[in-house]
Amino acid sequence: MTLYGLDNLPYGVFSVDGGRRRIGVRVHDDVLDLDAAEAAGLIDARGALRTPTLNAHMAQGRAAWSAVRARVRELARAGDGTLVPLADCELHLPFQVADYVDFYSSAWHASNVGKILRPNQPDIPENWWHLPIGYHGRAGTVTVSGTPIVRPWGQRRGDGGPAFGPSTRLDIEAEVGFVVGTPTRLGTRVPVSGLADHVFGVVLVNDWSARDIQAWEYVPLGPFCGKSFATSVAPWVVPLEALAHAWTPAPAQDPPVLDYLRADEHLGLDLSLAVEWNGTRVSRPPFAGMYWTPAQQLAHLTVNGASLCTGDLFASGTVSGPQREEVGSFLELTAAGPVRLADGSLRTFLEDGDTVSITATAPGPDGTTIGFGEVTGTVVKTA
Amino acid sequence: MTLYGLDNLPYGVFSVDGGRRRIGVRVHDDVLDLDAAEAAGLIDARGALRTPTLNAHMAQGRAAWSAVRARVRELARAGDGTLVPLADCELHLPFQVADYVDFYSSAWHASNVGKILRPNQPDIPENWWHLPIGYHGRAGTVTVSGTPIVRPWGQRRGDGGPAFGPSTRLDIEAEVGFVVGTPTRLGTRVPVSGLADHVFGVVLVNDWSARDIQAWEYVPLGPFCGKSFATSVAPWVVPLEALAHAWTPAPAQDPPVLDYLRADEHLGLDLSLAVEWNGTRVSRPPFAGMYWTPAQQLAHLTVNGASLCTGDLFASGTVSGPQREEVGSFLELTAAGPVRLADGSLRTFLEDGDTVSITATAPGPDGTTIGFGEVTGTVVKTA
């Protein structure tokens, strides 16, 4: 099964031997050097492809994305341009993150977490069914896949006051992120039909979470140090255009949503995620079952007139399905007890040296499959 | 009383007649053009003063800040360089905001708000006394003083489900912001003694807040659309070095704080804020009484290894004192009933056309006074 054929062509930023960062597109197991292609006159994006991040091209808007993608496809099909073996590439954060927003859009996840963290309250608060709950995360600690995850220290609830030390409940959140290209002016809204005009592409996200720190700090203003130490993204941004065959009806919404969240076509994306813990596949979270869609998230994010910047990243929130083997966090996976990995070891939360890798696929045209690369990270002890 | 004499010298970014953005320093009612000064060889900051934001100079670190400031003072004293009348200048956002963090560090404010929003719970949650509660806000909607504040639309609690429309409880939060210059590496911490090594300067902040939207959305992940539509900052960044005489013992902390928050000198800044509503002074919030200090906020923000970027802004949270005429939000000011403005009108929350201006002063050396400019904004109806 080819995941990176001509129907995918995800964008990234690479370098070779410590050289300059360049924009490239993955074609099978090679990277097509778009910096070199634009320098050689094989493609014209007014210089936007000769920069060290995707931001300049993302800011050019939907028509330019489409035109560049079409030309990249021609080059890839013809074998024109410079192909660099992926194995020779160092991959970097593909875009400069402006604001990072994290949603909370899986009803299964919200219900599971509510039961664990707020056992004496309704598992899903009333407002959750009316709006895609979200909050701002730390943009400056969004890093590319492979960056070591330094176990965070912080406060947690202790006996008679807080305890302090390395997090004892370090967790993941398997998510799908949407990268904004086209900005907006302050005071304007993006309608629920506006997703494809503003979102350049899709990237896998692991929103590392320290549950002990988060549980102590999050009332009343939400997660902070329990999240802000690291968020990893895959090195490949899959163009939204490549996902034309992945749209699928999203779950019906009851109670009915307000008009600004009501789409003519209420669609989610049929991505199948996979989570591996030290090489053992522990979960297959289904993205198609998310209650709130990316189009609704974007409409809600801007309903108050908040402007968008090129490089804004908004993530879905943990992708969890109804089954234990479909959850996107270890808090949920191990709520009923530890899991056994292939090496025989038992795990509840992450130990130093543990590696988590998240991958995903989506249907492409004509029975093909679109791959999203991998977001991986290994936990290291605080120095 | 001079507020902008040689002991202050705050930094800003200005343009004249739609021209290029230039870095300048306010000297009384003029702006000393540092772009021109560096171009003319009067000052040397390796070109950092010839850029359209303060970020490049802020990234140069404490020794460079001190050297440039000393040289600026010589120029201002000697009358060297180009002075542009302030009245001829358009003032811009002085720095590009990286991440924006908002704290919640006034015990009076936390108590007042807790009583209003959570009447059936303890007004201040247990964790509040152990850590400076904070959350990430939207960096992309931080704008310079004078930018119109478009009244946000959104969801609020209604009868049998959410209501939707323009916010009916639009409010301010008078705050003091700290602007990070020197960045850090991911996985490292800033000690509580590290403030002056990392913070370039101080800026007034108005964190506009839609209380009806916020009250409905904020459980469980904190404020989002109720805040993200606009945050205004004053056009002048007062160098931390200019505030050497403004440090004052901060309130004693009981229960005792954890070691990472314990300073040899537990100091706050003696800023006196003033809030005017349509020209009527309605409050004088005292910054010296804040429970958590900026040094503690910075230590907490990085205790988990979160990196700092040049341009990070962290704000104090609403500055409120114990008296009604010392509160930094209208939610608190009008909790017991509307206020009457000088024109005879009554107000509870902001109406379209209302203007709010926040100013502040701090003690300088030898009986002088340091001014912080003004952060002002006028509410306009959604188009």
UniProtKB/TrEMBL annotation, chains A, B:
<dbReference type="InterPro" id="IPR005959">
    <property type="entry name" value="Fumarylacetoacetase"/>
</dbReference>
<keyword id="KW-0378">Hydrolase</keyword>
<feature type="binding site">
    <location>
        <position position="214"/>
    </location>
    <ligand>
        <name>substrate</name>
    </ligand>
</feature>
<dbReference type="InterPro" id="IPR036462">
    <property type="entry name" value="Fumarylacetoacetase_N_sf"/>
</dbReference>
<dbReference type="GO" id="GO:0006572">
    <property type="term" value="P:L-tyrosine catabolic process"/>
</dbReference>
<feature type="binding site">
    <location>
        <position position="231"/>
    </location>
    <ligand>
        <name>Mg(2+)</name>
    </ligand>
</feature>
<dbReference type="InterPro" id="IPR011234">
    <property type="entry name" value="Fumarylacetoacetase-like_C"/>
</dbReference>
<feature type="binding site">
    <location>
        <position position="175"/>
    </location>
    <ligand>
        <name>Ca(2+)</name>
    </ligand>
</feature>
<dbReference type="GO" id="GO:0046872">
    <property type="term" value="F:metal ion binding"/>
</dbReference>
<feature type="binding site">
    <location>
        <position position="102"/>
    </location>
    <ligand>
        <name>Ca(2+)</name>
    </ligand>
</feature>
<feature type="domain" description="Fumarylacetoacetase N-terminal">
    <location>
        <begin position="8"/>
        <end position="94"/>
    </location>
</feature>
<dbReference type="InterPro" id="IPR015377">
    <property type="entry name" value="Fumarylacetoacetase_N"/>
</dbReference>
<dbReference type="GO" id="GO:1902000">
    <property type="term" value="P:homogentisate catabolic process"/>
</dbReference>
<feature type="binding site">
    <location>
        <position position="118"/>
    </location>
    <ligand>
        <name>substrate</name>
    </ligand>
</feature>
<feature type="binding site">
    <location>
        <position position="207"/>
    </location>
    <ligand>
        <name>Ca(2+)</name>
    </ligand>
</feature>
<protein>
    <recommendedName>
        <fullName>fumarylacetoacetase</fullName>
        <ecNumber>3.7.1.2</ecNumber>
    </recommendedName>
</protein>
<feature type="binding site">
    <location>
        <position position="318"/>
    </location>
    <ligand>
        <name>substrate</name>
    </ligand>
</feature>
<keyword id="KW-0106">Calcium</keyword>
<feature type="active site" description="Proton acceptor">
    <location>
        <position position="109"/>
    </location>
</feature>
<feature type="domain" description="Fumarylacetoacetase-like C-terminal">
    <location>
        <begin position="102"/>
        <end position="380"/>
    </location>
</feature>
<feature type="binding site">
    <location>
        <position position="207"/>
    </location>
    <ligand>
        <name>Mg(2+)</name>
    </ligand>
</feature>
<dbReference type="GO" id="GO:0006559">
    <property type="term" value="P:L-phenylalanine catabolic process"/>
</dbReference>
<keyword id="KW-0479">Metal-binding</keyword>
<keyword id="KW-0585">Phenylalanine catabolism</keyword>
<feature type="binding site">
    <location>
        <position position="173"/>
    </location>
    <ligand>
        <name>Ca(2+)</name>
    </ligand>
</feature>
<feature type="binding site">
    <location>
        <position position="218"/>
    </location>
    <ligand>
        <name>substrate</name>
    </ligand>
</feature>
<dbReference type="InterPro" id="IPR036663">
    <property type="entry name" value="Fumarylacetoacetase_C_sf"/>
</dbReference>
<dbReference type="Pfam" id="PF09298">
    <property type="entry name" value="FAA_hydrolase_N"/>
</dbReference>
<keyword id="KW-0460">Magnesium</keyword>
<dbReference type="GO" id="GO:0004334">
    <property type="term" value="F:fumarylacetoacetase activity"/>
</dbReference>
<feature type="binding site">
    <location>
        <position position="227"/>
    </location>
    <ligand>
        <name>Mg(2+)</name>
    </ligand>
</feature>
<keyword id="KW-0828">Tyrosine catabolism</keyword>
<dbReference type="Pfam" id="PF01557">
    <property type="entry name" value="FAA_hydrolase"/>
</dbReference>
<comment type="pathway">
    <text>Amino-acid degradation; L-phenylalanine degradation; acetoacetate and fumarate from L-phenylalanine: step 6/6.</text>
</comment>
<feature type="binding site">
    <location>
        <position position="104"/>
    </location>
    <ligand>
        <name>substrate</name>
    </ligand>
</feature>
